[in-house]
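User: Sequence in, structure out. Go.
Assistant: Echoing your sequence, followed by the structure tokens.
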Amino acid sequence: MSKPEEQLAGCSEGVSEQLPSYEDLLNTIHFLVKERDAYRHQLAFAQRTIIELQNQIAYASQLASSVQVAPPSPMENQTQVGRVSKPKTCSTWIQSWLAPSEPILAPAEDAWQGGSVQRALTKVELVMRRKDLTLSEEVNAELLFCALLRSSGKSQLALTYAEKALTLAKNANDYWLTGKAEYHRGLCYLKLDLFARSVWCFVLASQTTDHREQVEANRLYAMERCKELPLNHPGREIDAQNI
């Protein structure tokens, strides 16, 4: 073999050694497809947020242009509040937006349906102590505990469980569970009369496709309540760190 041929053969061997295997290529393709899908979800999420930002800017401009207008009297405010239609929500977990949930939570759901909130809370606590829960079971347990506390008038405490569920879902990049957690966080803010924050939560919850009408009804209700508040009311404030 001539010297040029030997050099060419040596180059061919070097190239073949550098080429990735079929399995490596397949793993890379699967990784890229997964990354693409994640970015698509994030883009849709960002687009919805941008739309809501535009709505908020338009609303702020409307407020700025009408600051010289005298505020309505207390009687007028009461009349306006009376015209707001609060979305209908079911009192039980099984008939709620999160249904169906996880089979492991069925005993707690049954206890709640039977009218025993305390017994339901105890059963959920037992589930939450387990170390073998799937992500969906863990998030839904936190949200069931949140819903039970909220139904008992403990909305501030319930909010902490909604936020814990939200953190779990976000860390796992599970956008559907993230939407469910945002929805329950919005309901907590609604109970606390923090209407601007609840609006944002319902906007972020709209990334899920299930029960979109209920999410939108709550968002519109929160917006109406927010408009009725004085300009410096805490219910108009938005926590930018938690958007």
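User: And one key feature?
Assistant: The chain has ten helices and no strands.
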